[in-house]
Every structure is written in C-alpha cells, then in structure tokens.
Design brief:
Blueprint lengths: L5 E2 L3 E2 L3 E11 L5 E10 L2 E9 L8 H12 L6 E7 L4 H6 L23 H14 L4 E6 L5 E9 L4 H10 L3 E4 L7 H7 L4 E7 L6 H17 L15 E3 L5 E5 L4 E5 L6 E2 L4 E6 L6 E5 L4 E7 L3 E2 L4 E7 L2 H13 L9
Parallel strand pairs: 5-6, 5-7, 7-10, 8-9, 9-11
Antiparallel strand pairs: 1-2, 3-4, 4-6, 8-10, 8-17, 12-19, 13-15, 13-18, 14-17, 15-16, 17-19
Helix pairs in contact: 1-6
C-alpha cells in the first residue's frame, strides 16, 4: 500500500514526524489555547491510528503514554500513521481539574462538537474534525476520577466486531462491554466508522509507571494486529474476562456515614461473602460490614476514607470458574499484576 500525506488543515508527508501545537480556542486574553499533537506518518502505507489523553484534565497516566509513543517509533518502521493527541483538554490540564474550568464543561460529553456552540463543543469540533475523522481506529486513555482508582481495563462495545477486534488486540485482561454516552468520543468515533476503545488505568493526578508500561505494550499489540508494525507479534493475555451483562457488575455503595477501611487484602480478588470494607463511626461504637455479593474482581475502589450514605465504595465484576482458576494460579505463582491502588 502506498503511503500518503496525512491531512488535517495542513499535511504531513510520508516519512515525517511532526510535533505541533494546534489552536482549538482562545483564553480570556485572546491568547491561543493549543493542544500538543504528534503525527508520525510512516514511510509505508497502512491505517491511521489516533490516540489521545487528558480529555479530563487531571487524568495523567495517558499523557505519559502519549509522550512515550510519540518518541518511540520511527517513520521507517511504521506502515500507516500515528496521531498522538497528548493533552486534549488543555484548560482542565492547566488547572489540574477534570472539566473545562469556570463552567465545568465535560469535553468527553461534547463530541463531535460544532461551530457556534459552547466552549467544549467548539473545542471538540476542532479536535474531532482535524485529528479523529481522518483516522481508521482510535484509543482513548483515561483514569478514574479523583478520590478513586481503577484497575487496568478496556471499555468497548463488544457487540460490534470491528470494536471487539481492537479491544482484544489491546490485550487487557478485563473488558467491560457496552455503549458509552452518546456524545463521548468513543461512541461518536465508533458510530462514524472509526472503531474506538477506552482504556481505564489507575488514578488521577499522577503517573503510575507499571500501568504506563502495560499501556505501551497494549498500543504496540494493536499496531501489530493492524499491520502498522508488521514484524511485531500481537500480545495475548493469559486470561480475558468480558463483562457484557449488568448482572455481572455492581457498584457497592455506603448505607451509613463514617470512616471507610478496605479489608480485602493485597489483590483485588474477593469471594462471595468476604468482607470488602467496613464503615465505622468516629467513636468506633458502630461498624457496618460491606460484603461481596458474588465472587469477583474489585475494579474500582474509593480512596478517600470517608463516606456518606450513597457514596460509591467499590466497583465489583464477577468472574467465571475458569477465570477464577487462572487468577488463583497467577496469584500462587506470583504472576498476578493487578493492583488498582498502586
């Protein structure tokens, strides 16, 4: 396949790497709001892959992934094009907060965006039109929101074969299947024929090197699957659990207010009936035990140790018998790497 220029409102010829700051808005002072983007256009033809981080400005693990991807690959090795959007929500990133400041607009609920709309939709329109629409597949990197952490996993609409191929190729052990919100980047891009997955990894406001390394392996596995790196093997995990039913997942929430102490041990595997956490009052005269309703993995967990009734405590997904046996084998062998709080 012949390599072609990658076009946005300019173009990057085959065999070139371009680091650019692309204006998508303005500040109160009229200064440009620019997103950092790296485009690696390979010497050989192939698919275009977009990757982005920090749609929520305080979610930093993906920012490190973008930095590494953008500096790791040479155009002579690439069959296709890599488009790395290092920081999508620059205003939120500068303020180190999730949403676009002042009006608390969620950039990931603003796609595909449009001219003449609110700030977030105008920014989304610029990002989508110039750097997402020209691509063939996409990976959207996220972390949990503040005060929580999440196990490394993929979110994808596995009912769509093109998305399922991408999700499996990324190589995460856990895939939560389902549609995302209608105005999220993942949904809009997928519905426009650009299969896209979300990668959730760890906590906001920090780099977690072990998770970054796993994400880099996942990116390389995807590039291998789609022929962007034809000489690299696709990586398959030792086990994969796809959660595609609401019966197989639940958020456990506090029924009382107080101090939360997690009790489930060094790995996020719990068996039915085991204590996940306790909630006690400040005088330690009352304690509420929160037990696992089924055997499964703690995918998301509260890190702020105080809760009021209704506050989420943990996100639990079930595991089948075969997966449970493989997880227990990995734990016994010291190979189980999931530590959502690390």
């Amino acid at each position: 396949m012949e390599s072609k220029p990658f076009r946005y409102d300019s173009e990057v010829p085959p065999g070139e790497v371009r680091h650019l700051r692309y204006e998508i808005s303005e500040t109160y002072l009229g200064d440009p709001v620019e997103i950092p983007v790296t485009i690696i256009n390979g010497e050989h033809g192939g698919p275009s892959v977009f990757m982005n981080a920090a749609l929520h400005g305080d979610e930093l693990n993906g920012v490190k992934v973008m930095q590494e991807v953008a500096s790791r690959y040479d155009p002579s090795d690439i069959h296709g094009t890599l488009v790395c959007i290092h920081v999508a929500n620059v205003p939120g990133y500068l303020a180190q907060q999730r949403y676009i400041p002042i009006y608390d607009l969620d950039l990931n609920r603003s796609f595909p965006g449009r001219d003449g709309a609110n700030t977030a939709e105008r920014m989304a329109n610029q990002i989508y039109r110039h750097f997402v629409e020209p691509c063939d597949i996409g990976i959207d990197f996220h972390t949990s929101t503040r005060n929580r952490t999440t196990m490394y996993h993929v979110r994808a609409d596995m009912a769509r074969p093109d998305v399922a191929r991408l999700a499996r190729a990324f190589g995460a052990n856990l895939i939560l299947s389902g549609e995302a919100e209608a105005s999220s980047l993942r949904t809009v891009a997928t519905n426009d024929g650009i299969p896209t997955i979300t990668v959730e990894m760890g906590r906001a406001h920090r780099f977690q090197p072990a998770l970054v390394d796993r994400a880099l392996d996942g990116v390389e596995s995807v590039l291998a699957e789609y022929g962007v790196l034809p000489d690299v093997p696709v990586s398959w995990p030792g086990w994969t659990r796809i959660i595609d039913s609401a019966r197989d997942k639940t958020w456990l929430r506090a029924d009382v207010g107080g101090l939360v102490e997690m009790q489930y041990g060094e790995v996020p595997l719990v068996h039915e009936g085991e204590t996940i956490c306790t909630i006690s009052d400040h005088f330690k005269t009352r304690e509420k035990r929160v037990a696992a309703p089924f055997t499964g993995l703690v995918v998301g967990v509260l890190q702020n140790p105080v809760a009021a009734p209704g506050h989420p405590l943990c996100h639990l997904v079930s595991v089948d018998d075969a997966t449970l046996r493989e997880i227990e084998r990995e734990i016994e062998a010291g190979e189980f790497t999931e530590r959502p709080w690390s």
